[in-house]
Amino acid sequence: MLSNKNIVIGITGGIAVYKSLDVISRLKKLGANINVIMTKSAAEFVTPLSFQSLSQNYVITDMFDEPKTWDVEHISLAQKADIFLIAPATANIIGKIANGIADDMLSTTVMATQAPVLIAPAMNTNMYINRVVQRNIQILKDLGYKFVDPASGRLACGDYGVGKLASPEDIVEGVISLFNGLSNKTLKGKKVLITAGPTQEPIDPVRYITNHSSGKMGYSLAKASRDRGAEVVLVSGPTNLEKPKGIEVVDIVTANQMYDTVLKHFDAADIIIKAAAVADYKPKEVSNNKIKKTDSNLSIELSRNPDILLELGSKKKDKILVGFAAETRDLLENAKGKVNRKNLDFIVANNITEAGAGFKGDTNIVSIIDSFGNIEKYDKMKKEDISDIILDKIYDLINLKE
Description:
Blueprint: E1 6-11, H1 17-29, E2 33-38, H2 48-55, H3 73-80, E3 83-89, H4 91-98, H5 105-112, E4 117-121, H6 125-129, H7 131-142, E5 146-147, E6 151-154, E7 160-164, H8 168-183, E8 191-196, E9 201-204, E10 207-209, H9 216-227, E11 231-236, E12 248-251, H10 255-266, E13 271-274, E14 281-283, E15 302-304, H11 308-315, E16 320-327, H12 331-341, E17 346-351, E18 363-364, E19 366-370, E20 375-377, E21 381-382, H13 383-401
Parallel strand pairs: 1-2, 1-3, 3-4, 4-5, 8-11, 8-13, 11-12, 13-16, 16-17
Antiparallel strand pairs: 6-7, 9-10, 14-15, 17-19, 18-21, 19-20
């Protein structure tokens, strides 16, 4: 994903410095080449050797250290960077960059780079909300610098509020999003509506009917659409996934709630991707009280839920509509029937019977069937890669229709 990309990471002083070790580890696993610049204050919290071991490159802490190469280091690193990440970023470094101060290795290298700069602030709440700091952040945003917003919670000083360094997962996602945004804006100006996850149909106050959908495929599609420049609405059934940044997430529980929410956003959407696993049936009657166990069997009468995809197909007009099908037998035949019956541009047929594929894993085995009956089969791959294939096909359809 980040194979052979050069990321220069600036690390400034603060208790959150240790989290940057995790960030570097994650970026390395994605194939990135990492160079680290630490301020002297940062080196008081975690030794440069720790970062050197993880990055597998020597760490620069002082402009006046004996150079390791013949290059002027701040210039060579500035030119080498594909992205420049500062995490954690103190109020001090934010203020320096915003006001053109270059008095150490980190601030000097930032001034010299033409690469996009991503900043992850971390500081006390009162410092973060200080008007001077907020002014400096706004100056940088206006100049095109990107930010990973800090989280809220208990801070190292004991205060509670905004200012915690964003999680390593969010920082890495910010890096990936920035890279994707630089190289691929195929959905810029488009509005994408995506459904994800299962629905839950209540039986009584403590029981419900549901399925094994994790929501991972829909969430992956939502993030990939965002990274390609789209405005995304994600209608999500109950999942354990974190809400993606920069996406409007609408939480629902039942199939009827998903139906109402999707129709509400349908008219504004250019592209609709129905990746949710919606329950076909629901209990006809819902008990107000917990159903007690007895010596006899229990029968529950079920009634049909609305067919959301069928409804959307009837209203489609010039929109692009993509469906998903998960089957345990006759996968391609069943999926092909849905394409025509529900007026889809194409359907993603998900083979959930193979090991390592299906709802809860990070990989799927899919076939894509278009409205002309053409079938493309794919080997097992990550859901992120499948998302890219789906969005590439949508982009081709956009070009055909325009």
